[in-house]
Amino acid sequence: MITKSRRLSNGMRKFLIIINSLFLVIIILFTPLVYYVFNLDYYETLQERYGVFSILDRDDVIKISGKIINFFKYRENLDYSDPDLQAKYTGENTDAVLRFQQDEIEHFYDVRVIFTTIFIIYFISIILFIVILVILSERNMKSFLRNTGNVFIIAPVIIFIIVLLLLLFGR
After folding, report:
1. How far apart are CA 136 and CA 144, in angstroms?
2. What long-range pairs does 38-45 form, CB within 8 A, spacing at least 24?
3. Which of 25, 32, 49, 106 is the most buried (most CB within 10 A)?
4. CA-CA distance, 25 to 61, in Å (whole number)?
5. Cα distance between the two ends of the chain
6. Spatial CA neighbour of 47 closest among 58, 34, 39, 33
7. How far apart, in whole angstroms, are the C-alpha atoms of residue 61 and residue 72?
8. Distances (CA, A) of 56 to 44, 105, 107, 150, 160
9. What's the pTM?
10. Runs of H (alpha helix) within 38-57
11. Count of other CB atoms within 10 angstroms of residue 74
12. Three-state DSSP state, 75
């Protein structure tokens, strides 16, 4: 028995291309965030650049940064009274320390919820992007390349429009 391959209607194909372009925009916009949120070396570079280590003890600050990254990964919770969340001042012989206030700790919890939501959207977008690419392939390489090319043309246009709108109305 010979089966006829099902082709997508032109309207459905255009719809899937637009949806996949939106998923690609999400992937492009959130990839740097996903990378930098958990990159301890990046935090250390920024802390060095902005002179944090000239004010606070380097080891304490790096330890705190690691605890915050683990907090965002849901490996541990932050507690106001945790001595590992305190940093000694450099160059002083006193026992003075800098510690997070309770409202700052609560803010970290709010940020973690936002990050979690963004990561869920990001990873779902990656999965759906791949699934839609497979659907758009229609078992034909020429069609797949044309549809994929359209996705990769529309996505940068959307990003350009977003940036342009932010520049025009973001002041």
Report:
1. 6
2. 38/69, 38/72, 38/73, 40/65, 40/66, 40/69, 43/69
3. 25
4. 35
5. 65
6. 58
7. 17
8. 13, 19, 22, 51, 41
9. 0.81
10. 40-49
11. 9
12. coil
Structure tokens at 68: 């915050």
Residue 50, phi then psi, degrees to nearest 5 = -95, 10
- Give the pLDDT confidence of 71-124 residue by residue, as tens digits: 999 999 998 888 888 888 887 666 667 888 889 999 999 999 999 999 999 999
Each residue of 143-168: pLDDT tens digit?
788 888 989 899 999 999 998 998 99
Question: What are the CA-CA distances from residue 45 to residues 48, 65, 84 (Å)?
Answer: 5, 12, 21
Query: Strand (E) positions, 72-112?
Result: 86-88, 97-99
Residue 33 CA: distances (Å) to CA of 11, 53, 115, 116: 34, 24, 9, 12
Residue 102 carries which side chain, given as an amino acid letter? Q
CA distance 58 to 63: 9
